[in-house]
Amino acid sequence: MRRFLLLYATQQGQAKAIAEEICEKAVTHGFSADLHCFSESDKYDLKTETAPLVVVVSTTGNGDPPDTARKFVKAIQDRSLPADFFAHLRLELVVEPWIDGLWAALTKHFTSVGGKEEMSGTLTAASDASPRTDPVALELLHVESQVELLRLDDSRKKDSEVLEQSAVNKESSALAADFESSLTRSGPPLSQASLNIPALPPEYLQACLQEPLGQEESQASVTSVDPIFHVPISKAVQLTTNDAIKTTLLVELDISKTNFSYQPGDAFNVICPNSDSEVQDLVQRLQLADRLEHRVFLKIKADTKKKGAALPQHVPEGCSLRFLFTWCLEIRAVPKKAFLRALVDHTSDGAERRRLQELCSRQGAPDYNRLVRDARACVLGLLRAFPSCRPPLGLLLEHLPKLQPRPYSCASSSLFHPGKLHFIFNVVEFPSDSTAGVPRRGVCTGWLATLVESILQPNTRAPPADGEEALAPQITISPRTTNFFHLPNDPSAPVIMVGPGAGVAPFIGFLQHREKLQEQRPGGRFGAMWLFFGCRHKDRDYLFREELRHFLKCGILTHLKVSFSRDARVGEEEAPVKYVQDHIQRHSKQVARVLLHENGYIYVCGDAKNMAKDVNDALVEVISKEVGVEKLEAMRTLATLKEEKRYLQDIW
């Protein structure tokens, strides 16, 4: 059988699920997939590999590699490696939903004469345009890989399946006005269609519950690749007014009795639990409420057909059921289609079975995207929606990923606040995924907001009155190992900071640090510091207003440009600038001079989906306008700044 090497790296289990799906489908397409995690380096050897290589990989945090790929990424970044070190490999990058294109690419490779034809030329491009020789290589490589994926998809557009799906989509759109489907109910044509549903993923975990022994459990049982620190919360302040659209809190941690250290711009992880009420509701729904303190033991089913089945590393042996659902499993994870397919076989009601089949089918993809993925449905919401579904505990453990720690940016300098660490966050709220309609809070931000309620100060600097001091709650944190978002080593280099909303957090640390450095070196040369900040309303969510005015008055901050997206013009006043990217374009000459003539640095922190893209587009416009070049050349200039680590992003 035609063999290919299939490697994956994952943080929350999504890339692993995709890789396993590819592995299972490979046999039906006449291939044999040799499946391994990148971390299992003793089971494969890329230096001598001759078969095609398929890589399924996710990113985490701010584009960082997942934990399971850290060692591999560090190895391939070795500058002593020759540029053509991996040139012998044939690589196909796989990104959902282009998995079907993989089979065409592999078939093309194996049917070519002697297998010598390149499937995509991706690694050839990587070798010829190595970042050691071309600063634009990574940007162009990304574009080229996306074009190749689209080309594979395009070449299959005459397939009957693609045409059938197109017809279903058109018909669905035409009927959308007449019938609005819900999570539990569909309408024609989907309700009457023949379905192409994925193969049933083989079950492989057997969970056994044993009587509790009464031993205490701690968060130390949660597996972590980094050291962890238990630290008290010494202060919590609400930075926004009560009528602001989002509630933003500042939390101060006392790290004075630990060896935790940080630089301004660093990020760290907060290890958080799932909501007690959601855990209770879930075990109640699983009919396990009376066994919350029972110990959980897992083993691989003897008759499983799953290839390479292994016990999940994020489940401590013998932990209690309560601990498992509270600290180990991401019960808010959006269920993958493979999970929905597995639930079908544990659902007794015919109508419910059919609806679950629709949601995991190719024909039901629009409903899955809208009602499951985009609605952020979770396993509890699904089990509430489908009452006859009774999955065993082992099935949930197969499909629920590890509960990940949440990253936060440091919003302070240890020079300015010795022994303290500040961070800020918006209390995330989004619609309920159940008919109850109660909004859900973010797993970590909701927990933190509840935790600090007893010590929370309003948006003033007034300390609690004497005798009102509350007991300081504790949280567990760990350092992030891939921090890069730091001030220039040369303090005379000018700096541009772009951080609307909570994205201003690391820049408060930058400014505090710079103030202390200038106090320590009164005759030193320090570059200009620009801050482009934005919020909705000047009087509701202008974070750190007094602090920023102080930095501006002291000359630490040389330029402060603030945008207000929801404030209207008052009287004869000029309309306020709405967004940070508008202010950047308004000051295009100065921005271009800092970046292109003064060897300055630009830092962007905040929302990746909209803000970061809009700021990037604005910078392209600025460079194109001020230098007088085409946009493509301006994009190359920005890529060069990124390669030189002078255009840095901390985005989420």
SSE arrangement:
Elements: E1 2-9, H1 14-26, E2 31-37, E3 53-57, H2 70-76, E4 91-93, H3 99-111, H4 122-128, H5 137-154, H6 160-175, E5 205-210, E6 229-238, E7 248-254, E8 267-271, H7 276-285, E9 295-300, H8 321-328, H9 337-344, H10 350-360, H11 365-373, H12 379-385, H13 393-399, E10 406-409, E11 420-426, E12 429-430, E13 440-441, H14 443-451, E14 456-457, E15 474-479, E16 495-498, H15 505-520, E17 529-535, H16 545-554, E18 559-564, H17 580-586, H18 588-596, E19 601-606, H19 608-627, H20 631-643, E20 647-651
Parallel strand pairs: 1-2, 1-3, 3-4, 6-14, 16-17, 16-19, 17-18, 19-20
Antiparallel strand pairs: 5-9, 6-7, 6-15, 7-11, 8-10, 8-15, 12-13
Helix pairs in contact: 7-12, 9-10, 17-19, 18-19, 19-20
Domain FAD-binding FR-type: 226-488
Protein name: Methionine synthase reductase
InterPro entries: CysJ-like_FAD-binding, FAD-bd_FR_type, Flavodoxin/NO_synth, Flavoprot_Pyr_Nucl_cyt_Rdtase, Flavoprotein-like_sf, FNR_nucleotide-bd, NADPH_Cyt_P450_Rdtase_alpha, OxRdtase_FAD/NAD-bd
Keywords, separated by commas or semicolons:
652 residues, alpha/beta, five-stranded parallel sheet, 20 helices, 17% strand, FAD-bd_FR_type
Written overview of the protein:
Helix 18 crosses helix 19 (608-627) and helix 19 (608-627) crosses helix 20 (631-643). 33% of the residues lie in helices and 17% in strands. It has helices at residues 14-26, 70-76, 99-111, 122-128, 137-154, 160-175, 276-285, 321-328, 337-344, 350-360, 365-373, 379-385, 393-399, 443-451, 505-520, 545-554, 580-586, 588-596, 608-627, 631-643; strands spanning 2-9, 31-37, 53-57, 91-93, 205-210, 229-238, 248-254, 267-271, 295-300, 406-409, 420-426, 429-430, 440-441, 456-457, 474-479, 495-498, 529-535, 559-564, 601-606, 647-651. It has 20 helices and 20 strands. The chain is α/β, with parallel strands linked by helices and 652 residues long. The radius of gyration is 27 Å and the shape is globular. The strands form five sheets. Strands 6, 7, 8, 10, 11, 14 and 15 form a seven-stranded mixed β-sheet that branches. The chain has a five-stranded parallel β-sheet with strand order 18-17-16-19-20, with helices on both faces. Strands 2-1-3-4 form a four-stranded parallel β-sheet, covered by helices on one side.
